[in-house]
Amino acid sequence: MTPIIARTREELTAARASQGTLALVPTMGALHEGHRSLLRRARELADTVAVSIFVNPLQFGPNEDLDRYPRTLPDDIEICAAEGVDLVFAPTVDVMYPPTALGARVTVDSGQMGTIVEGACRPGHFDGVLTVVLKLFNLVRPDVAVFGEKDAQQLAMIRRMVADLNVPVRVVGSPTVREADGLALSSRNRYLSPAERLTAVSLSMALRAGAEAAGDGPAKVVRAARTVLDGAIAADPPLELDYLVLVDPETFQEVDDAHTGPAVLAVAGRVGTTHLIDNVPLAFGHASE
Ligand code: PAF
User: Fold this and answer.
1) Is the sign of the CA dihedral 17, 18, 21, 23 positive or negative?
2) Where does (R)-pantoate bind (predicted)?
3) Which atom of ligand 1 is nearest to the CA of 52?
4) Is 151 in the pocket of ligand 1 (CB under 6 A)?
């Protein structure tokens, strides 16, 4: 089944007139197996599945990969058709950000949480993400929206926005999909040369080493992961580590060694010119145990 393709707000409004509940999967396109798993999750949650495909300039910094970010709309539509997607909303930049509004634009402020961890590496990134996600929610009006847990801070921030701004949508996370060797699927993986890919896999190896040390407490987790990353930092090509942190899954504040309950071990770094992120959810024993 070919999905309905909407390129403008008017086409979207006409297509959105369908009955029943709607699940939205917001994406920037270059769809891969990870996105497919989001689409399947969305199908379980609502009568109609909509996908947005939009490379959002607002969430890219001046020296980031906006220009080279892969744009593969015909392939993406084929994947959507194969996954039984009902509606693809693929607006242009002018549709999402009409030129007349330039200079007088109101955007979402991601607050303090938008300035830490990934937000510290990419100033303004989460303001851009939250702005476009809120716009997509207002345009598509989904009952539920599905996001990948690979972007754990993004997911936490979208949940925060929905709670703080009373946005009437249910946010659902879907687990990270990995290659056989552990590398988390990402549209940016296609930038990696074979040698860079070998270095990149150290991110997931480090997370696995950290997870295996979870029984020994937070400090051991970070140490075990760091040991793996030290190897990658010394490799050729090297990993340039941006951060390795153990954080609270809701606030992304770092936890201390006495922490009990859920946490996220999050890592990011650059291999060549490619920025890669990954994370693993962990749980530490409660004091009463
Ligand atoms: O995760 C992404 O692909 C993007 O950040 C999102 C949520 C579609 C907003 O542009």
Assistant:
1) negative
2) 59, 154
3) 8
4) yes
